[in-house]
UniProtKB/TrEMBL annotation:
Start and end residues of each Shikimate dehydrogenase substrate binding N-terminal domain: 12-94
Protein name listed in UniProt: Shikimate dehydrogenase
Assigned keywords, A-Z: Amino-acid biosynthesis, Aromatic amino acid biosynthesis, Oxidoreductase
Chain ranges passing through the membrane: none
GO cellular component terms given for this protein: cytosol
Example of a GO MF term: NADP binding
Top-level taxon: Bacteria
Entry's Gene Ontology BP terms: aromatic amino acid family biosynthetic process; chorismate biosynthetic process; shikimate metabolic process
Length: 282
């Protein structure tokens, strides 16, 4: 097991008061006998560079867990990136190996773990994904990499979707990619990777008819009250996977990455699935 240089790991981003990752990770570290503790640090993009400089000087931090809106901005401060981070331009877990910072992204693999825990599979399924930010692009890459039949991505910034799909096509392996909802298209799994649902009164990212015709709904948002999307899914009797399931799917991957010398998200995901008895993802 890798010897971690510091005793503290920071989770940075904003808003951050509601996040459960630090508590879940701390339980894992305690169970494994690791003298590490995750603490929350509310941080926005303007203060990121200054904070990174302070961390470089301090030498008492073992790594970072990164959430909105810093997943893209943190990449400018990395010394090394996994191939997945190079593709996405976003990282959500940083390990400090001495003076070298290496960034990884476990959003997609955490999403897959949540979906599989709900008895669903990615391979051969047709997906409609709302949102192409740091989490959305990671989820999209995993959907494609796992052998989905089709993936449509929608976002208010259509240009960003077009550019990302261009990069994603080299991984498609027969997965049909699109950026617009067809007239009467039906999807096996809907995925909300937008912030919609975080605040009371937010609309759903999907029209009720799309939810009605879908097989299942995955929402990565963690909200204090049932979102419109959740209410629609329950009204139509659709399987609903909530945001906390994705968090739980990632924490073991964070732990393994932060306490070993691993440099591959996929390898860690396979090892974690095997250890849990779920069977290795594709």
């Amino acid at each position: 097991m890798r010897e971690t240089g510091g005793r503290r790991i920071e989770m940075i981003g904003t808003p951050i008061d509601h996040v459960r990752t630090p508590d879940l990770l701390n339980r894992l570290f305690e169970r494994e006998g690791q003298a590490l503790r995750v603490v929350k640090k509310r941080l926005g993009p303007v203060a990121l560079g200054r904070h990174v400089e302070a961390l470089r000087r301090s030498g008492d931090v073992a790594g970072l867990v990164v959430t909105t809106p810093l997943k893209s901005g943190i990449c400018a401060h990395l010394d090394r990136r996994t191939p997945l981070v190079r593709l996405l331009g976003a990282a959500n877990c940083i390990r400090f190996d001495g003076d070298s910072w290496i960034g990884a992204n476990f959003d997609g693999h955490g999403f897959e773990a949540a979906v599989r825990a709900a008895g669903l599979e990615l391979a051969g399924r047709r997906f409609l994904l709302a949102g192409s930010g740091g989490a959305g692009t990671a989820i999209a890459a995993r959907i494609v990499g796992a052998g989905a039949a089709a993936l449509t991505i929608i976002d208010s910034d259509s240009g960003k979707v077009t550019d990302f799909l261009q990069a994603l096509r080299r991984l498609a392996r027969g997965c049909v990619l699109g950026d617009a909802v067809a007239g009467k298209a039906r999807y096996d799994i809907l995925v909300n990777a937008t912030p919609l649902g975080m605040n009371r009164g937010d609309p759903s990212p999907f029209a009720p008819g799309i939810v009605r015709d879908a097989g299942a709904v995955v929402d990565i948002v963690i909200a204090e009250q049932p979102s419109r999307l959740r209410r629609d899914a329950e009204r139509f009797g659709r399987t609903f996977v909530e945001g906390t399931a994705m968090v739980q799917g990632q924490v073991e991957l964070f732990r393994r990455f932060l306490t070993t010398s691993a440099t591959s998200e996929a390898a860690l995901s396979r090892a974690a699935a095997k250890a849990s008895g779920r069977g290795a993802p594709g």
